[in-house]
Amino acid sequence: MVSLHRLSTFVAVVNAGSFTAAADILGQTRAGVSFNIKQLEAELGVALLTRTTRRLALTEVGERFYQHCQRLLQDAEFAVEDARRGHGTLSGTLRITTTPEYGIHTLVPIMAAFMRQHPHLTIQHACSSQHANLISERFDVAIRLGQLVDSSYRAALIETFPILPVASPMYLHSHKIRCLEDLRQAQWVAHSRLATPLTWQVQGPDNGWQRLDVSVQPKVLADTSASLQVFARQGAGIALLPEWLVAEDLANGLLQQVLPQYRFPEQGVYALYPNTQHVSEKVRAFIDFLRLSVKLKSA
């Protein structure tokens, strides 16, 4: 009888692309992962992977077996959760990845409250400005901000928020921004992970939309909103940042909103999760709890 543990190890190796990466994700040694794969192939009497010095590749049989394993493991997880649901408790591990800023500002207090309701559940939270691969990195939920692009994942909208152009009083004292043309000619600090960090649709006082193309190349590029916020405080230029991130700076005068009569497109907070046949109960429960918590906080 082939064990589910070896099946899950095989799936992890395929998703991660190597024994070493799979071992890191599973918290095992590379030798242990390699042993389980060799034993699995021996039990099945077939080769599932071809190994070269550079990469692993699935055999034809391995490709079909991988698809079956994914469905089997999903069904097994669903069966376990369905049985546990009768006790009204969640258990196991919920793995969540977020950006550092939103994670600390909003998500960590909500995760702590969720954990208090489900004391048998372990939460693993990872902060990164890079978008994680939910499958290969074994995350249950990814919280993404901005405009949602087409994805193989399922997505649930949690909330929307304004983004504001802000700058320090020091910068605005020496650079007068009176109109949209001044904004085009201004020095910006830009988010390096955006495809077009200096091009936006802007809504004017007449509610009409027009395109804003910043003509000055930025001297500062950063991959986190927190870094852009600090650069803006230090007078490096104008940064376009979430209202929830800069609200305190605006209140205490460290930053000022630029041209408040113009509005930039609202952004969304989305919970992404794998597009599997069965959505786990812990994922459903967390997304529902997150939505409700955010709604109550903004009420």
Automatic annotation (TrEMBL):
CDD domains: PBP2_CrgA_like (cd08422). Residues 2-59 form the HTH lysR-type domain. Keywords: DNA-binding, Repressor, Transcription, Transcription regulation. GO terms for biological process: DNA-templated transcription. It comes from the Bacteria. InterPro entries: LysR-type_TF_proteobact-type (IPR058163), LysR_HTH_N (IPR000847), LysR_subst-bd (IPR005119), WH-like_DNA-bd_sf (IPR036388), WH_DNA-bd_sf (IPR036390). GO terms for molecular function: DNA-binding transcription factor activity; sequence-specific DNA binding. Belongs to the LysR transcriptional regulatory family. This is LysR family transcriptional regulator. It comes from Yersinia nurmii. The lineage of its organism: Bacteria, Pseudomonadati, Pseudomonadota, Gammaproteobacteria, Enterobacterales.
